[in-house]
Amino acid sequence: MSNEKLRVDKYLWSIRIFKTRTMAAAACDSGKVKLNGTAVKAAKQVSLGDQYEIKTEARKWKIEVTGLLHNRVQYSEAVKYYVDITPEEDQQQNQRMASSFNTGKRPSKIGRPTKKERRDLDGFMVNEEEE
């Protein structure tokens, strides 16, 4: 297995750091994936013991490669192929970013009325005009 070749983009996708391989490749090309402080291209070969610094939209990672994974597997399996060595201050920053992350759902009781509230409002407005 040691002579098998594995690209950085495919590895980062298979250990579930990126949702798609295209996103992993784009991150490599834009310099968001670094090996020992140097930006790497998507086609760079992964070796055991490599330490990568990765910036995703959600958080910063620092990982060490402990195994080569060619196919995407469930998260509980994927975590066995790397060690998360993210520094403490980056982990705290990741926590802050996660807590401020907007799900896109509207907070209740502000904004547009629900269908039921709309009917009540319409009924209320019509009764007021008739008087």
UniProtKB/TrEMBL annotation:
Region Disordered, annotated ranges: 89-131
Keywords noted in UniProt: DNA-binding, RNA-binding
Chain ranges of the RNA-binding S4 domain: 6-67
Gene3D superfamilies associated with the record: RNA-binding S4 domain
Protein origin, superkingdom: Bacteria
Family under the similarity heading: Belongs to the HSP15 family.
Name of the molecule in the record: RNA-binding S4 domain-containing protein
Organism: Chitinophaga horti
